[in-house]
């Protein structure tokens, strides 16, 4: 297990991914961190039972990363962190409020959905109520439609020039309806 404690602000090298294979070797991370003078995480050897107990019992830390026997990193968040995090109450419940959708969109834009997925799957939350998938699916649908319109416009610009392409495109095409 890798533990990064935030007692003070610091840059901590927590991973190095091989772009060709996708592998993240923690031993390489530790060696590279030492070589470059970066702070590296604390390393612990634990059983699966100890890891899951830590997730429930740990307080004052956000979470940790566990490297399984295959060397793959698995990110855990502590229940204490979810309990104190604002997102605990922001995105749960059956009604899609403006704040809930805005929080999901913001997480999507900032590539932070992993925290929301993890929060949604916590025992204290309603795991059976998937608040994320409908919103994320709609966002991806909008992105695809906007990309399609952009690609069509670029084709028209290449063929007819910018001014004529704008005339051909006419008004702004309709975007998918919100929820």
Describe the structure in your own words:
The structure is a single chain. With 179 residues, the protein is mostly helical. It is 49% helix and 8% strand. The protein is built from eight helices and four strands; from the N terminus they run E-H-E-H-E-E-H-H-H-H-H-H. It has helices at 26-36, 48-57, 79-84, 87-90, 98-109, 113-120, 132-160, 162-169, and strands at residues 2-3, 42-43, 63-67, 73-77. The protein has a two-stranded antiparallel ribbon with strand order 1-2. A two-stranded antiparallel sheet has the order 3-4. A hairpin with a 5-residue loop joins strand 3 and strand 4 (73-77). The protein is extended. It starts with a strand and ends in a 10-residue tail after the last helix. The model has no long low-confidence stretch (mean pLDDT 78).
Low-pLDDT ranges: none
Average pLDDT, rounded to a whole number, is 78
Structural class: mainly alpha
Roughly how much helix do the residues carry, as a percent range? Answer: 40-55%
Say how many strands there are: 4
What's the shape? extended
| SS summary, helix count | 8
Give me the Rg, rounded. Answer: 22 Å
Strand content: 5-15%
Strand order of the largest sheet: 1-2
Query: Oligomeric form of this entry?
Result: single chain
For the sheet with most strands, the description reads: 2 strands, antiparallel
Span from first to last CA? 41 Å
Write the H/E string, N to C. EHEHEEHHHHHH
Labels describing this entry:
two-stranded antiparallel sheet; 8% strand; two-stranded antiparallel ribbon; 179 residues; mainly alpha
